[in-house]
């Protein structure tokens, strides 16, 4: 693990060398990040879809702003000392400012995608891409915005589902040549395609192992053998949390009591343990006692 004095970007880079593939799990808020940390994950992720859905009740269609994403970034980065990778969509017209803002908010890195500004979920139809030169300009501007040399600028390409695997590889190679530190290969349909992609791209490659999409639920062992450096699970916990919440809401509404689902809930003791509640309470009590002392 990287030393405590190193930046979070440097920590993320070091982890990729230590754990292959590095599992990066999506956390939609600060408490989810605490749970991920306690489960043993060493890096976390803030999904643009997660911000839109969980924080604003909106679909992932480019509605959220940089400041909104930066606020969720600050909350997560303030809660856990883990490197946080952030979904920066297309960079909000100024990828240099985006890099500076998310670095200040506590992110370890971000990814920029090669879709048009009116972007879509990477596993939906109808995606449109900017040309390679336009994406290269986004990436060069992002590098100009670095205030931390360790901050990770990752290039995401959505080309596989739109233009085919060969075009995605060509784009990724151009993005790496333009200075991208890593590559997010979106919506790759087979393990063999990942192996081909990774062999052709001279940079660490991230595989997005999202549910109900175009990519199968590949194991870490399979991804390692294919040369993948990072495995991302952007909304797995959020989907499970949402399904559980809906079940509780339905039970309360139909039965008038939560008794039938109480065994599915986190206990008060477990909540307090995750939050380190008693330490905080004791600190407040000590401060109040000190104020009252003559």
Tell me the span between the first and last alpha carbons: 47 Å
Report strand %.
5-15%
- Flag low-confidence runs: none
- Mean pLDDT comes to 94
Helix content: 40-55%
Calculate Rg over CA atoms.
21 Å
Which structural class do you get from the secondary structure elements? alpha/beta
Task: Describe the model.
This protein is of the alpha/beta class. The chain is 50% helix and 12% strand. The chain has 13 helices and eight strands. It has helices at 8-18, 30-38, 48-56, 66-79, 95-105, 132-144, 159-163, 165-177, 191-200, 220-226, 236-255, 268-275, 277-292, and strands spanning 22-26, 43-46, 84-87, 109-113, 152-157, 182-185, 205-208, 230-233. Helix 6 links the parallel strand 4 (109-113) and strand 5 (152-157). The longest helix has 20 residues, at 236-255. It is globular, with a radius of gyration of 21 Å. The mean pLDDT is 94.
Which short descriptors sum up this protein?
single chain, 294 residues, alpha/beta, eight-stranded parallel barrel, 13 helices, 8 strands, 12% strand, globular
How is the topology of this model organized?
Blueprint: H1 8-18, E1 22-26, H2 30-38, E2 43-46, H3 48-56, H4 66-79, E3 84-87, H5 95-105, E4 109-113, H6 132-144, E5 152-157, H7 159-163, H8 165-177, E6 182-185, H9 191-200, E7 205-208, H10 220-226, E8 230-233, H11 236-255, H12 268-275, H13 277-292
């Amino acid at each position: 693990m990287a030393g405590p004095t190193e930046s979070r970007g440097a920590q993320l880079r070091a982890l990729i060398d230590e754990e292959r593939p590095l599992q990066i799990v999506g956390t939609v808020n600060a408490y989810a990040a605490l749970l991920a940390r306690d489960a043993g994950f060493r890096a976390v992720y803030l999904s643009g879809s997660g911000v839109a859905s969980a924080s604003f009740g909106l679909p992932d269609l480019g509605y959220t702003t940089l400041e909104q994403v930066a606020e969720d970034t600050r909350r997560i980065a303030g809660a856990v000392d883990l490197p946080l990778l952030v979904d920066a969509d297309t960079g909000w017209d100024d990828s240099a400012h985006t890099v500076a803002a998310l670095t200040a908010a506590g992110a370890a890195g971000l990814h920029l995608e090669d879709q048009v500004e009116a972007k879509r979920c990477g596993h939906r139809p109808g995606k449109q891409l900017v040309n390679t030169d336009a994406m290269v300009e986004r990436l060069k501007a992002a590098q100009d915005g670095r205030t931390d040399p360790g901050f990770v600028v990752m290039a995401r390409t959505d080309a596989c589902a739109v233009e085919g695997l060969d075009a995605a590889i060509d784009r990724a190679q151009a993005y790496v040549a333009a200075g991208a530190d890593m590559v997010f290969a979106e919506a790759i349909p087979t393990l063999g395609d990942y192996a081909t992609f990774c062999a052709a791209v001279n940079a660490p490659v991230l595989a997005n192992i999202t549910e109900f999409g175009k990519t199968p639920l590949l194991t870490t062992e399979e991804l390692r053998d294919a040369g993948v450096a990072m495995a991302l699970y952007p909304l797995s916990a959020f989907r499970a949390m949402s399904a559980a919440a809906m079940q509780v809401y339905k039970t309360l509404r139909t039965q008038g009591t939560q008794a039938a689902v109480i065994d599915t809930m986190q206990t008060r003791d477990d909540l307090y343990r995750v939050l380190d509640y008693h330490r905080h309470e004791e600190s407040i009590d000590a401060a109040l006692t000190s104020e009252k002392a003559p």
